[in-house]
Amino acid sequence: MLVVFTQEITSRLRYIFRFLFEEILRVPVIITDDLHEFNASNFPKINYSLLPLDCLLKMHPHPILFQHDINFQSLEAVPYDDEVYFFESSADSFLPFDPFAASFYLVSRYEEYLMRELDQHKRYPSHHSILYRNHLLHKPVVNQWAYMIAEKVRRHYADFEFQSPRFEFRSTIDIDNAWAYKNKSWLRTAGALAKGFLNGNRQQNEERLQVLRGEKQDPYETYDFIRQLYHGRNELLHFFILLSKTSKYDRNVSPGNEQLQQLIRGLSEDYEFGIHPSYRSTRNKRELRREIKTLEEIIDKKVRSSRQHFLRLELPVTYRRLIKAGIHHDFTLGYADQVGFRAGTSTAFYFYDLKKDAPTKLRIHPFQFMDVTLKNHLKLSPDEASIIIGKIMRGIRDYGGSFISLWHNESLCDQGEWDGWRKVFEQMTKQAIKYKDESAEHYLHQT
Fold it and tell me: Can you tell me the distance from the alpha carbon of 203 to that of 205, in angstroms, rounded to the nearest whole number?
């Protein structure tokens, strides 16, 4: 148990203290503005106020947790122990920066509400992020700060106990195109063959015809490989399916296709299945609800999880729409052009709606990298990608949280532009399962 004194208990303050202590450190926290209650308590204490109290741990609070609107904040770097921090505190604080204010700024995605310069798909650009600009994007800094706070508390209160970092893992697969050639309409197939002929792509046309004649397996049909790799560990796999009308950026097989429905039913019997809201649904509320209803009718289950197609995310509009549509878990938070920790954390958290200045019940599961990012945006080879993935995993092993990756069924085909990437997926999976099992065993010994 930990007791925190503050002169004003706000929604923001309560939210971030509970996240750091109860979600990451697994320590119950009492937040009080009652001096008598604070002084009488025998639990470890933090004075998060301007009052000069008789308390071993003081933190000069930054105003952001006591504000109720959205303003531009001073983000000057605060150097400390060869690292960079922000939201400067005071000389008599137990840290030279306010980790509670800094964590709220990152986890709430505060900076994204102030950004109007978006990319071509109206996404928040990674290079505007304070973490990117300070070379901190590859670290789960919020988790790191939580453990810094915990160590400071334990230095003054020897009996203070908190959970050591625990590594969790989940692979997520987006099915944007269930098949490269199979189960497409005759019109799309004819158009593709004509395009291949005009472009002189004889090899692709021949492969398409071989697949359609049943002489060769469709290259995007990687589901048996995925099943074999995760055999006995079904809980570690989560699929998201695109079910929309065809448009420029939405190119999956028709949701009415019986083969597609059979594929979905078969996978959903063994694995978690969520909706992949289409590109066009970001501006069409009815389209989002229609796509969710379509999936629910196919799998005969309520759909509670989602990830936006093209990672299109506008705060708070997108999350509000998902909440109204009955979604409880979202896996969109990550960058299309960079790897790392967009919200500075590897721990799932509840979306905080800054415009309403209140937390919601939508659980956000941030991912750390996408296959397309590694290959197309960062131009990495499979071997280089494995090195980057390993560093991310070790960071989460050191500071806890969930290692979540984003792959596509097509990127595991192990041919063409994706030659060699199946091995990356295999190595990542084996190492992540090893870390997860070791972490679980360590946790059992602790308890």
Answer: 5
Assess contact for 213 and 181: CB atoms under 8 A.
no
CA nearest to 370, candidates 431, 304, 311, 305: 311
CB burial readout 212-236, b (16+ within 10 A) else e: beeeeebbbbbbebbeebbeeeeeb
* Closest C-alpha among 333, 342, 363, 370 to residue 176: 370
Amino acid in position 34:
D
The dihedrals phi and psi of 273, each to the nearest 5 degrees, come to: -135, 125
State residue 284 phi and psi, 5-degree precision: -140, 100
**247 or 140, which is more confident:** 140
**Burial of residue 324, with CB atoms counted within 10 A of its CB: 0-12 exposed, 13-18 middle, 19 or more buried:** exposed
Model pLDDT for residues 18-53, shown as the tens digit of each residue: 999 999 999 999 999 999 999 999 999 999 999 999
Q: In what order do the strands lie in the sheet with 329-330?
A: 349-353, 358-364, 329-330, 305-306, 272-275, 237-241, 167-175, 401-408, 369-370
Phi and psi of 170, rounded to 5°?
A: -150, 130
Question: Model confidence at 197, in pLDDT bands (50, 70, 90)?
Answer: low
Distance CA 266, CA 261 (A): 9
> Rounded to an integer, what distance in angstroms lies between the CA atom of residue 77 and that of residue 63?
17
d(CA 369, CA 387): 13
pTM score? 0.95
Token pair, residue 57, equals 């741990």
CA distances from 213 to 223, 403, 409, 445 (A): 20, 41, 22, 57
Using an 8 Å Cβ cutoff, are 336 and 301 in contact?
A: no
- Token pair of 189 as six digits: 């197939």
Note the pLDDT of residue 273. Answer: 97
Structure tokens belonging to residue 424: 């990356």
Q: Which of 413, 332, 399 is nearest to 370 (CA)?
A: 332
Closest CA to 21 of 168, 165, 167, 162: 162
pLDDT for residue 251: 85
Give the three-class secondary structure for 267: helix
Pairing of strands 167-175, 401-408: parallel
